[in-house]
Design brief:
This protein is α+β, with helices and mostly antiparallel strands. It has a five-stranded antiparallel β-sheet with strand order 4-5-10-6-7. The chain has a four-stranded antiparallel β-sheet with strand order 11-12-13-14. It is globular, with a radius of gyration of 19 Å. The N and C termini lie far apart (59 Å). Bound molecules: flavin-adenine dinucleotide.
Length: 296
């Protein structure tokens, strides 16, 4: 199918994009990489009367490393984030997750902000944002506000961003602990497809090899990506042995609310949630352990 007729305009600045959003309201959509929006328009699942192209806005394309957080401009291409070695050293989950996002071709066009704003509950970057507690800077004609990931993701393909707001940048927390490791695990029908279930984990070890900090979450098993801070907190102080990690993974799997579709039943997704959460936690632990070079 072809998209319904629409008007196209290119914004030269964030201010201009915000003004166009204000002027056209619900009838307008920003287009970034177009890797989700354009297929949806072609299938007539969305019919914006106005398409506001933000690809030319240089201020939306950057990676900046600060003491506590990495900042990425919303229109930074996924491939640029994936290949940024300095960023990978500070927020490794991003590159680990991006290896699962679509294909080289889609990552060359797709943007970080587009993926977050699209808010597919099976998508990898929203899961990383939820697990790390990323913060989204949203701008409109009347100012800017910041939303934590847990407030930003509002439901399947829905965010708390208002129609007149442009996602401007994302702040990804950098863990200060030296012995920090992370891992991403996923099952999909074919590599490059959206995840059937995905899991992301990050742990930090103390100088005795015990868990000093932990965060993990699951995608594809609820209306939004899910993080489990209370379960993760129970890991702190433990040796992160196999039984402890599996117990945490099982507790998370019991909390999620997977649905059924033609790819998998809810029951199978719940099973995968337990398997993949444990796999991600184990991977993160091994990664941290390798960095720490601690013998247990
Ligand atoms: C073949 C194929 C396979 C794919 N596989 C995966 C996969 O495995 N995992 C995965 O996560 N994704 C996958 N994708 C989607 C891809 O990651 C998209 O790049 C991403 O979902 C959207 O990013 P985009 O920049 O293309 O956004 P667009 O498609 O341009 O926009 C998506 C939505 O976000 C809004 N938006 C974009 N930028 C902003 C902004 N700055 N502020 C506010 N709203 C904004 C748009 O208005 C639109 O509603 C796949 C895509 C294709 C074509």
């Amino acid at each position: 199918m072809k998209a319904a007729p629409f008007e196209y305009t290119r914004a030269a600045s964030v201010g201009e994009a915000c003004e166009l959003l204000r002027r056209h309201g619900d009838a307008a959509k920003l287009v970034a990489g177009g890797q989700s929006l354009v297929p949806m328009m072609a299938m007539r699942l969305v019919r914006p009367a106005w398409l506001i192209d933000i690809n030319e806005i240089a201020a939306l394309k950057f990676v900046s490393l600060e003491k506590d957080a990495a900042r990425t401009g919303a229109c930074t291409r996924q491939c640029a984030v994936e290949r940024d070695q300095a960023l990978a050293a500070r927020v490794p989950l991003l590159a680990q997750a991006l290896a699962w996002v679509g294909h080289v071709q889609t990552r060359n066009r797709g943007t970080v902000g587009g993926s977050l704003a699209h808010a597919d509950p099976c998508a990898e970057l929203p899961l990383v944002a939820q697990v790390l507690g990323a913060r989204m800077l949203l701008r409109s004609g009347s100012g800017a506000r910041t939303l934590a990931a847990e407030k930003f993701f509002a439901g399947p393909m829905a965010t708390a961003a208002r129609p007149e707001e442009c996602l401007e940048e994302i702040h990804w927390p950098i863990w200060p602990e030296k012995r920090t490791g992370s891992a991403f695990a996923e099952i999909s029908v074919r590599h490059g497809d959206f995840a059937m279930v995905a899991a992301a984990a990050q742990v930090a070890l103390d100088d005795k090899g015990r868990c000093a900090r932990a965060a993990f979450g699951l995608g594809g098993v609820g209306g939004t990506p899910l993080a489990f801070p209370k379960i993760a907190a129970r890991l702190v102080g433990t040796k992160l042995d196999e039984a402890t990690m599996q117990e945490a993974a099982n507790a998370a799997s019991a909390e999620c609310e997977p649905g059924s579709d033609l790819h998998a039943s809810a029951e199978y997704r719940r099973h995968l949630a337990g398997v993949l959460a444990a796999r991600a936690l184990r991977g993160a632990y091994e990664n941290a352990h390798e960095k720490a070079k601690i013998s247990v």
